[in-house]
């Protein structure tokens, strides 16, 4: 299903705070952070000309975040960046002088960081980033996970020294519990979703994601005409949409937000005309996107900058994984996890629906950009869905 944005604030200017956080100054800040990370390299942009011809579009480029900072997901950018900013702010206040990224390794800053505990809820990827950030600066992390998160994902987080706390219920339940315990114990909550009175830290997390589109615009041969980005609570979609709106203004590409059909909180919010929490239903295969309550901060951005909102069925997401694993012509193979392929799956669904294709003005000249937000962060599940191991697919890249 597809809905065009007809909200009252569509194409209105971004809120000044969002423009500051997610604009060029924000993107510059995450680039400075990444420059200090020894393991950082820009993630690859995959050109798929053969698949583009097969689909009847002019060009298809995918930003492969499965390569990001050794964590296999775009979320490596957000949580760790927020943790380092918060440590630097706390240390600047304690030491009475302005500090920057180069000071993170100093003994006095690390001594202050060692007294700090960062908590968050996660479906897997955000928790890894927060835990990695805490380990980088010498802080403690406590990660809250609901029962649907697989043990391999929990183990991947624990490797960074994080304490894992299991919470009954859904991702939304784990968010509430993480915030409750952190408030009770005086810890700092680093959430990738916002709520009333809590926006600045999720804003820092989203700021980290602006690196994706900043890099992509340097790598692309031409700016895209169409962009498809998947959404859980909406953070990555909002970060990319904001950058594109500020960079290109009225000439920005057509931006489509893609929700899992079984967890379509942003889609239903557009239908309702306001941020809307939806009922928990059957699990979706796109587990990293299984969110039922949109981030108000992301909504504030997307209501202004997204042109359309759509849903994709689980079977289309699995098809997208398989099509990328078995390339057409001389195209490279791409390892895309079940949530990572969702933006591309949105393109497949839109192209098959004549009304959606017309509404989005997709045709033979369209230059489409999408983000593979994660690789095979659960290798066993990936092999089950694709019939090939991640290593076998990567060998064909």
TrEMBL record:
Residues 41-373 form the Tryptophan synthase beta chain-like PALP domain. It is an enzyme of class 4 (lyase). Keywords: Lyase, Pyridoxal phosphate. GO terms for molecular function: diaminopropionate ammonia-lyase activity. Its EC number is 4.3.1.15. It comes from the Bacteria. Pfam families: PALP. Its cofactor is pyridoxal 5'-phosphate. SUPFAM superfamilies: Tryptophan synthase beta subunit-like PLP-dependent enzymes. InterPro entries: DiNH2opropionate_NH3_lyase, TrpB-like_PALP, TrpB-like_PALP_sf. The keyword Lyase applies. NCBIfam families: diampropi_NH3ly, PRK08206.1. PANTHER family: DIAMINOPROPIONATE AMMONIA-LYASE, PTHR42937. This is Diaminopropionate ammonia-lyase.
């Amino acid at each position: 299903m597809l809905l065009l944005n007809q909200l009252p604030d569509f194409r209105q200017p971004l809120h000044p705070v969002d423009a500051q956080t997610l604009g060029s100054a924000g993107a510059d800040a995450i680039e400075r952070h990444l420059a200090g990370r020894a393991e950082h390299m820009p993630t690859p942009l995959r050109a798929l000309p053969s698949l583009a011809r097969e689909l009847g579009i002019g060009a298809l480029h995918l930003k492969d975040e499965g390569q990001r900072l050794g964590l296999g997901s775009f979320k490596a950018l957000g949580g760790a960046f927020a943790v380092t900013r918060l440590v630097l702010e706390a240390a600047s206040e304690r030491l009475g002088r302005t500090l920057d990224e180069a000071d993170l390794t100093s003994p006095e800053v690390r001594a202050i960081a060692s007294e700090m505990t960062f908590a968050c809820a996660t479906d897997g990827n955000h928790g890894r980033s927060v835990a990695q950030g805490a380990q980088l600066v010498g802080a403690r992390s406590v990660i809250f996970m609901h029962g649907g998160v697989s043990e391999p994902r929990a183990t991947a987080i624990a490797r960074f020294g994080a304490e894992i706390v299991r919470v009954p219920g859904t991702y939304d339940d784990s968010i509430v519990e993480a915030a409750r315990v952190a408030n009770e114990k005086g810890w700092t909550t680093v959430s990738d979703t916002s709520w009333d009175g809590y926006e600045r830290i999720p804003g820092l997390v989203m700021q980290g994601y602006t690196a994706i589109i900043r890099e992509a615009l340097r790598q692309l041969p031409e700016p895209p005409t169409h962009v498809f980005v998947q959404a859980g609570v909406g953070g990555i979609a909002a970060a990319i949409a904001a950058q594109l709106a500020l960079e290109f203004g009225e000439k920005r590409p057509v931006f489509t937000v893609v929700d899992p059909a079984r967890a379509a909180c942003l889609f239903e919010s557009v239908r309702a005309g306001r941020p809307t929490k939806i009922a928990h239903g059957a699990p979706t295969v796109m587990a990293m996107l299984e969110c039922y309550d949109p981030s108000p901060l992301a909504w504030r951005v997307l209501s202004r900058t997204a042109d359309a909102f759509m849903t994709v069925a689980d079977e289309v997401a699995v098809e997208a994984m398989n099509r990328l694993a078995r390339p057409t012509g001389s195209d490279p193979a791409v390892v895309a996890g079940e949530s990572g392929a969702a933006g591309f799956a949105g393109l497949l669904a839109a192209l098959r629906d004549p009304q959606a294709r017309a509404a989005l003005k997709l045709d033979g000249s369209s230059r489409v950009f999408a983000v593979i937000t994660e690789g095979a962060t659960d290798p066993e599940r990936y092999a089950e869905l694709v019939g090939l191991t991640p290593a076998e697919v990567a060998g064909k890249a």
